[in-house]
Structure formats: structure tokens, C-alpha cells
Amino acid sequence: MFPNMIARNMKVWMLSALMAVSVSSYAQDKPNAENGKKLYEANNCGSCHALDKKVVGPALRGVHTRRSNEWLVQWVRNNEKFRKETKDPDAIALYNDYGGAAMNIFENLTPANVLDIVEYIKTAPEPKKAAVVVSDANQPKDDSTTLYILLILVGIFSAVLLVLARVKNTLKRVAAEKNPEELAAMDAPKKGFFEKILPGKWGKKNPVVLTLFTVAILGGVGAYYGFQFSITEVGVQKGYAPKQPIAFSHKLHAGDLKLDCKYCHSTVEESKQASIPALNTCMNCHKGVQLTDKYNGEISPEIKKIYAALDYNPEAKPGEEYGNNPRPIRWVRIHNLPDHAYFNHSQHVKVGKQTCQTCHGAIEKMEVVQQHSSLQMGWCIDCHRNAQVDVANNNYYKALHEKAAKDIASNKNKSKYFSADGKVKLTPAMNGGLECSKCHY
Ligand code: HEC
Ligand code: HEC
Ligand code: HEC
Ligand code: HEC
Ligand code: HEC
Ligand code: HEC
Predict the structure, then answer these.
(1) Which residue from 148, 329, 336, 428 could staple onto 384, CB 3.0 to 4.6 Å apart?
(2) Pocket-testing residue among 236, 346, 348, 372, ligand 5, by greatest number of atoms within 8 A of Cβ
(3) To the nearest whole percent, how much of the chain has pLDDT over 70?
(4) Domain definitions of the chain by residue range
(5) Relative to the CA of 435, which ligand 6 atom is closest?
(6) Averaged pLDDT for residues 176-197
(7) 62-68 contacts, C-beta under 8 A, 24 or more apart
(8) CA distance 30 to 116
(9) 235 by DSSP, 3-state: which?
(10) For residue 265, which atom of ligand 4 is closest to its CA?
(11) Which numbered ligand comes closest to the C-alpha of 337?
């Protein structure tokens, strides 16, 4: 399997290398949509723009029909200089329309780069479905409910089978009534249940003993699984997805609008806590994004909740929008370790280079956030035993790196820093990640 995988990967690498070469040579002649898409993403245009809706900046689909290429190149590369030096009336009007919300300067992009982006905008496929409907929190059934339902179904099914077997027997009897020989055969002593299913002399043992034996085995297996289930599942909040006071959707904001997680969870690289954003962060956009088109001219009821919490009146005179009675929104906390355990985000995100999704799952696809991992001690330990930490260019691992290098020099391939497949392996466990005191106060 391994050599196979490597062979397959080699093919993919070679293919992509070839494609990269052909793409870059092609890009010089004709605008290249694929390259444009990459540049659009790499420069985070999507944090302020969407193709089909107004976000911070205008919807970009069809922009090539309202602006010339020359205009677009100047605008994207340095809109400020463009406005001030050429006094282009369209550029000034656009800027004023957006209340002076200035777009960044992208002088890193060459004119050809900008045309690639325009080509991407021109050719990007239309979405199948327009606005995303923010649904109510659908509390998913947890695993144990599913198990109980299955057990009940199995019970009902067996009962139905039993009844059917009886009915069949009675029918057979009624049919045999006319034929005394058949009737006699039916009444002859039957082979016991165990005689039928067990071979030779085993089937002839006392049926009571055999029954007790069977019950004991089944009971043992049941108790074992029951115990496993109780110690691993009880009190674990995996799948917990409470309804939140505002129907905020990660699928929309982090998925469709491609906002960076750190735009809102801004402390995740520096501190223990990832932190939930203040509503002022939402106001960067929702002062303007009110979704009145969707609600027949009214402001979205969910956005009104943000305004109410901040005591903000969108109709008041400039400078007087904010009242004196803001009250916090009480988001329902989803992930929660017990007080005796210590977990630190910056250690994992910044130092350990773990992605949010490894622990939280595909948040950018969730309408309602759901707990993805068990957060139990075994889960932490498993990863600390197996994760390969990236020690290159990471000062934090200097000591570990030196220790491993020394051990490898003196023990050669018997060094404990080699894994079974002969590769160097450096896990959090080797850096003290299994010590009780690291995770417990
Ligand atoms: C920080 C937010 C922000 C980012 C990032 C951003 N833009 Fe903009 N963009 C705006 C705003 C706001 C406007 C509207 C004009 C204004 O207020 O300056 C705008 C206007 C535009 C326009 C003119 C649209 C029209 O209808 O004429 C184009 C084209 C454009 N942006 C392309 C891009 C591209 C390409 C990128 C990425 C390389 C990008 N923008 C990144 C905020 C942004
Ligand atoms: C526009 C702001 C915003 C962005 C962008 C965002 N989040 Fe959130 N996040 C929130 C808000 C508000 C909450 C609290 C409400 C909720 O749970 O939906 C939250 C809650 C969470 C929670 C659950 C917290 C708890 O209570 O345990 C996790 C985990 C999370 N976000 C991860 C992410 C990840 C990963 C990304 C990037 C893929 C991301 N968020 C992007 C605003 C944001
Ligand atoms: C970068 C801009 C941006 C930020 C920041 C942002 N949003 Fe949004 N949000 C949008 C856009 C754009 C839409 C509308 C998408 C559409 O057209 O359906 C939206 C839609 C919504 C909706 C759906 C409203 C409805 O009735 O359909 C809710 C609720 C919402 N946002 C809440 C929040 C909250 C709470 C925060 C802060 C934690 C936040 N948003 C931060 C851009 C943003
Ligand atoms: C190694 C696993 C892991 C990674 C990686 C991780 N988290 Fe967490 N996250 C947790 C755990 C565990 C908790 C619960 C912490 C607690 O209760 O003290 C949590 C809690 C949260 C919360 C709730 C509020 C808080 O600060 O406790 C948010 C929001 C969150 N994470 C966002 C993120 C984002 C965004 C990223 C990526 C930048 C991320 N997490 C990466 C494991 C992880
Ligand atoms: C997906 C993998 C993963 C999971 C899950 C995980 N960790 Fe980690 N952890 C790491 C990595 C990688 C590091 C950084 C390596 C290091 O510092 O040695 C780390 C480091 C740590 C450290 C610092 C250790 C040191 O030596 O400085 C602590 C404490 C820690 N984790 C606690 C936890 C706790 C508590 C949990 C469970 C709630 C957890 N981790 C879950 C991967 C993980
Ligand atoms: C990598 C982090 C980590 C390490 C190392 C670690 N623990 Fe834990 N431990 C946790 C977490 C997280 C919990 C909470 C899990 C939960 O609530 O299910 C926990 C829970 C516990 C509990 C309570 C069990 C319960 O059901 O609430 C005990 C006791 C415990 N740990 C003892 C230890 C001992 C002893 C060691 C050292 C041999 C140790 N732990 C090492 C992370 C760790």
C-alpha cells in the first residue's frame, strides 16, 4: 500500500508541476482565470467582496461591464492614488458611495495579475442558490438516542417475527388437519433448540445448563459494552449544538464569505482563550448589511437583535445612534473543559501548528456550531502520542531538537526518535506532553 501511495503521489506531483509550468507560460499571453482565482484568494479579496452580494465592498460579478480594464488595473493596484492623481469621477463617486470605506492598496499585483483576477470574476460559475437561509438550531440526536432507537426497533422486529412464526404454525396445522399422517409427524417429539443448533453430544446436554450458560455469555458481553459505553459516553458533550440567541451562521461567514477565523476569534494565537467577538466586530459590516431586500424593506430581525443589544438606532442622526443601555448577548458556551484541566489555544495553534479543524471539525460548514471532539483526556493523550510536531524554524522546540539529534547520533537507528517506518518522529509526548502537571492545575 505504501509504495503504491508514493507512486500515486509522485504522479500527482509530476502532473501539477507540469501544469504549473504551462500555466505560468500561458499567463503572459492571455488573462488566466485560474491564476486569477489563486490571486483573489491569496490577497483575501473575499474578506470584503463576494461575487454576487454586497459585503464591505460591491458585488464584483459583471464589474468588467461597468469599468474598463485600464480603470480596474489602476483601481485595484492603488485606488487612493487613482482617485487623488487622476481625479477620476467614477472612482471618487464609488468611494463616496461606500462612505469612504477605503479598499486596501495592492501594488504587489502587476497589471497582468489584475487582469487575471478580472478574468476569474468574468468566468466564475453562477451560484446555484442565492442567499443562504440561516436555519434554526436543529439539535442533533446524540449517539445514545440513536442506539436506544435501534434497540427498540430490533425488539419490535423480533416480536413481529415470533408472531409470524406462530401464525405460520397454526396455518400449517389447519392445513394438515385433513391428513392424519402429517398431523402425527407434527406432534412427534421435537428436537430441542440446542440439539438443532449444536453439533453432536454438545446438543444433548441439559437444556437448563445450556440456557444459563448462554445467558451468562450474552450478559457478560452486554455488561462489557455497557461499561465501555458509560465510561466513554456519559457526560461527554460531543455533538452538543445549542440554539444561540442570534442565528449566527459560521457556514455563511466563515464558509461563503471566507472570513478568517482570526477576524473574530482574534486572541487565538496569543492567549489561552480563542474568545468570542464583541458585537462591535459584527457592526463593521452590519451597520451596512441589513438584508432589507430579503425582508421586504425591513431590517433583518436577526440583525435587529445586534442593534438592540448595542442600543443602536440606525435611523438616528449621525453621532447619536448609540444609546446608553447596551446589554451583552449571552452566547451559549459549547466547548467546556472541567476546571481541573488546562488547555491553551496559543500552544496548539501558534506553537503546535494545529488547525482549528483538527479539533473543531469543519466549522466553516456548520450553520450551528457543534462540538466535534469528545474533549476527554484520552483524546488529548492520543494526539500527544501521535502528532508529528514541526520543529523546523520553531524556537520552542530547540531543546527537543537537540536532545533528539544527540540520541540519534549515539543510538543510530535504534534511537527512540525513530518510528517503525524509519522516519524521525517528534511527538508532543516526547516534549513532556503526557505529564499530569502540564494539563492539570
Ligand atoms: C478591506 C476591504 C477590501 C478588500 C480586502 C478588497 N476590497 Fe475591493 N473594494 C472595497 C470597497 C469598500 C470598495 C468600494 C469603494 C471604496 O469604498 O473604496 C471596493 C471596490 C472594488 C472594486 C470596484 C467595484 C466596482 O463596482 O466598481 C473592485 C474591482 C475591487 N474592489 C476589487 C478588489 C480586489 C480584486 C481585491 C483583492 C485583490 C479587493 N477588491 C480587496 C473593499 C475591499
Ligand atoms: C464573523 C465572526 C466569526 C468568524 C469569522 C468565525 N467565528 Fe467562530 N464564533 C463566532 C461567534 C459569534 C460565536 C458564538 C456563537 C456560536 O456559537 O455560533 C462563535 C463560536 C465558535 C465556536 C464555539 C465556541 C464555544 O462556545 O465553545 C468555535 C469552536 C468557533 N467559533 C470556531 C471558529 C472557527 C474554526 C472559525 C473559522 C473557520 C470561526 N469560528 C470563524 C464568530 C465567528
Ligand atoms: C465581513 C462582514 C461581516 C461581518 C464581520 C459579520 N457579518 Fe453577518 N453577514 C454578512 C453578510 C454579507 C451577510 C448577508 C449574506 C446574505 O446576503 O445572505 C450576513 C448575514 C448575517 C446574518 C443573517 C441575517 C438574516 O436575516 O439572514 C446574521 C444573523 C449575521 N450576519 C450575524 C452576524 C454576527 C452576530 C456577526 C458578528 C459576530 C456578524 N454577522 C459579522 C457580513 C458580515
Ligand atoms: C488541539 C485542539 C484545538 C485546536 C487546534 C483549536 N481548539 Fe478551540 N478549543 C479546544 C478546546 C479543548 C476548547 C475548550 C477549552 C476550555 O474549555 O477551556 C476550545 C474552545 C474554543 C472556543 C470557545 C471559547 C474559548 O476560547 O474557550 C473557541 C471560540 C475556539 N475554541 C475557537 C478555535 C479556533 C478559531 C481555532 C483555530 C484558530 C481553534 N479553536 C483551535 C481545542 C482546540
Ligand atoms: C490534534 C492534536 C492535539 C490535541 C487533540 C491536543 N493537543 Fe495538546 N498539544 C499538541 C501539540 C502539537 C502541542 C505542541 C507540542 C509541544 O508543545 O510539545 C501540544 C501541546 C500541549 C501542551 C504543552 C505541552 C508542553 O510541553 O509545553 C499542553 C499543556 C497541552 N497540549 C494540553 C492539551 C489538552 C489539555 C488537550 C485536550 C483537552 C490537548 N492538549 C489536546 C497537540 C494536541
Ligand atoms: C494532555 C493533557 C492531559 C494529561 C497529560 C493528563 N490529563 Fe488528566 N485529564 C485531562 C483532561 C482534558 C481531563 C478532563 C476530561 C473530561 O472531562 O472527560 C482529564 C481528567 C482527569 C481526571 C478526572 C477524570 C474524570 O472523569 O473527570 C483525572 C483523575 C486525571 N485526569 C488524572 C490524570 C493523571 C494522574 C495524569 C498523569 C498520569 C493525567 N491526568 C494527565 C487532560 C490530561
Answers:
(1) 428
(2) 348
(3) 73
(4) 14-123, 143-233
(5) 5
(6) 64
(7) 63/118, 63/121, 64/118, 64/121, 64/122
(8) 8
(9) coil
(10) 35
(11) 4
What percentage of the chain carries pLDDT values higher than 90?
35
Q: Does domain 14-123 have CATH number 1.10.760.10?
A: yes
Question: Which ligand is closest in space to the CA of residue 433?
Answer: 5
Report the alpha-carbon distance of residue 377 to residue 78 in Å, rounded: 52
Cα–Cα distance measured from residue 215 to residue 310, given in angstroms and rounded to the nearest whole number: 64
Mean pLDDT for all residues in the chain? 79
Query: What is the rounded distance in angstroms from the CA atom of residue 81 to the CA atom of residue 78?
Result: 6
Buried b (16+ CB within 10 A) or exposed e, 399-426: ebbeebeebbeeeeeeeebbeeeeeebb
Q: How far apart are CA 35 and CA 403, in angstroms?
A: 44
Nearest-10 crossing angle of helices 111-123, 69-86: 130
Cα–Cα distance, 299 to 304 (Å, whole number): 7
Q: Whose CA is nearest to atom 15 of ligand 3?
A: 131
Mutate to test the pocket of ligand 2, among 240, 363, 364, 367 (most ligand atoms within 8 A of CB): 363
Of 104, 121, 102, which Cα lies nearest the Cα of 44? Answer: 104
Q: What angle do CA 145, 149, 153 make, to 5 degrees?
A: 170
pTM of the model: 0.64
Cell reading at 370: 457543534
Cβ proximity of 245 and 329 under 8 Å: yes
In this predicted structure, the answer to whether residue 320 has a pLDDT above a threshold of 80 is: yes
